[in-house]
Design a protein that fits this description.
- The complex is a heterodimer of chains A (192) and B (120).
- Chain A is mostly helical.
- In chain A, 79% of the residues lie in helices and 0% in strands.
- Chain A is built from eight helices and no strands.
- Chain A has helices spanning 2-19, 22-59, 62-77, 85-99, 103-120, 129-139, 147-155, 165-191.
- In chain A, helix 2 packs across helix 7 and helix 6 (129-139) runs antiparallel to helix 8.
- The radius of gyration of chain A is 21 Å and the shape is globular.
- Classes of the chains: A mainly alpha (192), B mainly alpha (120).
C-alpha cells in the first residue's frame, strides 16, 4: 500500500514540474494539515454518536435480534459453517455493524471470525471457501446508514444530507448480490 | 491520502484520468472518474475526492450526489482483503480479488446509473 502512495507522489511531482505547477504543489503541502482536520472532525463526531447508538443496541438486545434474523441467510451462504454457531455469530455481528457504516467497530468481530475459520483450516496459507465468501460479504456488504458520508454532506451545507441513501442502499445491495452470486457460481463450477 | 489526492488534482493528473473514459458517457461528470478508480484501493482517498466534489460543486449537485452514492455503494476491497487475510497469515487468497472488484464494479455502475436516473 505504501508503495502505491510513494509512486503516486513521485508521479504527481514529476508531472507537476513538467507542467510548471510548482506553486500549486507548494500550496498543497502548506494546506494539507487544515484540509485533513476539516475532513476528520465531522467524521469523528458522527462516528462517536453512532458508536453510542450501537452500544445501546447491544445492551437492549436489538443487535442480538438482528443477528438472529441474519442466521438463516448466513447458513445458506456458508454451507461449510452450518454447524459452527460461534463463527456464524461473529460473522453476523460483523455484517450488522457494517450496516451502520461503522467499519472500524465491525473489524474486531470480523477478525475473530477469521481466526476461528483459520483454526478449522487444513491448509494454513490458503484461504478457505468460507473466508472468501465472508470477505466478499464484508467488502460489498450492505450499508444502510453511511454515517461518514452524511456527516461530510452536512458539513458542506447539503439541504438534504440523507437524500442519496436510498440509491446507495440499492447500489450496495446490487454489489452484494453480484459478488455473492459470482462467488457461488465459482464454487459451483469448481465442485462439478 | 488527502495530500496525494490534492497533489494529483493540482498537477492536473486527474484530468488525464478522466480524459481516458470521457468518451464513454457525457452524463458522468469528469470528477467522478478518479473517484471510481480510487474507491477499491483506498476509502480515504475516494472520500477525499468526494469532499472535493462537495467543495467545488456542492453536496446536492449531480456530482456531489453521485460521489456520495459511489462512496456508500461498496467498501474498500483491497484494504479489507489485506487486513483480514494478513491477520490470520493467509497468503493464497484464491479468487477473492476478482470477486471483490467485480462487486465494486457492479456497485459503482448501479450507483452512477441510479443517480443519473433519479437526480438528473
Amino acid at each position: 500500500m505504501n508503495k502505491i502512495w510513494s509512486v503516486l507522489v513521485i508521479i504527481a511531482i514529476i508531472f507537476g514540474l513538467i507542467n510548471n505547477r510548482i506553486v500549486e504543489i507548494n500550496n498543497v503541502i502548506i494546506n494539507v494539515g487544515e484540509d485533513t482536520l476539516n475532513f476528520v472532525i465531522p467524521i469523528i463526531v458522527t462516528t462517536s454518536f453512532w458508536a453510542g447508538i450501537l452500544n445501546v443496541a447491544r445492551h437492549n438486545g436489538v443487535l442480538a435480534f438482528l443477528q438472529k434474523c441474519l442466521n438463516p441467510l448466513l447458513k445458506f451462504l456458508f454451507p461449510d459453517l452450518k454447524d459452527e454457531d460461534e463463527i456464524l455469530q461473529y460473522i453476523a455481528a460483523n455484517v450488522v455493524i457494517n450496516m451502520f457504516g461503522l467499519g472500524f467497530a465491525a473489524t474486531p468481530s470480523g477478525l475473530k471470525a477469521m481466526k476461528l475459520m483459520q483454526e478449522k483450516n487444513l491448509n494454513k496459507d490458503t484461504a478457505t471457501r468460507s473466508m472468501v465468501t465472508f470477505l466478499v460479504l464484508n467488502t460489498a456488504g450492505v450499508t444502510l446508514v453511511a454515517t461518514n458520508i452524511i456527516a461530510l454532506r452536512n458539513k458542506y451545507g447539503s439541504v438534504d444530507a440523507t437524500s442519496f441513501i436510498p440509491l446507495a442502499i440499492i447500489a450496495t445491495f446490487c454489489a452484494s448480490i453480484a459478488g455473492l452470486t459470482l462467488d457461488r457460481w465459482w464454487n459451483y463450477r469448481k465442485s462439478k | 491520502m488527502i495530500f496525494i489526492v490534492n497533489l494529483l488534482k493540482e498537477v492536473q493528473l486527474f484530468e488525464i484520468f478522466s480524459g481516458i473514459l470521457a468518451p464513454l458517457s457525457k452524463d458522468i461528470p469528469d470528477a467522478i472518474v478518479p473517484m471510481c478508480m480510487f474507491r477499491p484501493i483506498s476509502g480515504g482517498a475516494s472520500m477525499a475526492i468526494m469532499v472535493d466534489l462537495f467543495k467545488v460543486y456542492g453536496p446536492d449537485s449531480l456530482s456531489g450526489l453521485m460521489g456520495s452514492v459511489i462512496q456508500g455503494s461498496t467498501d474498500t476491497t483491497f484494504y479489507v482483503l489485506t487486513l483480514y487475510f494478513s491477520s490470520v497469515g493467509i497468503k493464497k487468497i484464491k479468487n477473492a480479488i476478482p470477486i471483490g472488484l467485480f462487486a465494486d464494479f457492479v456497485g459503482i455502475s448501479v450507483g452512477i446509473l441510479l443517480t443519473i436516473i433519479f437526480f438528473k
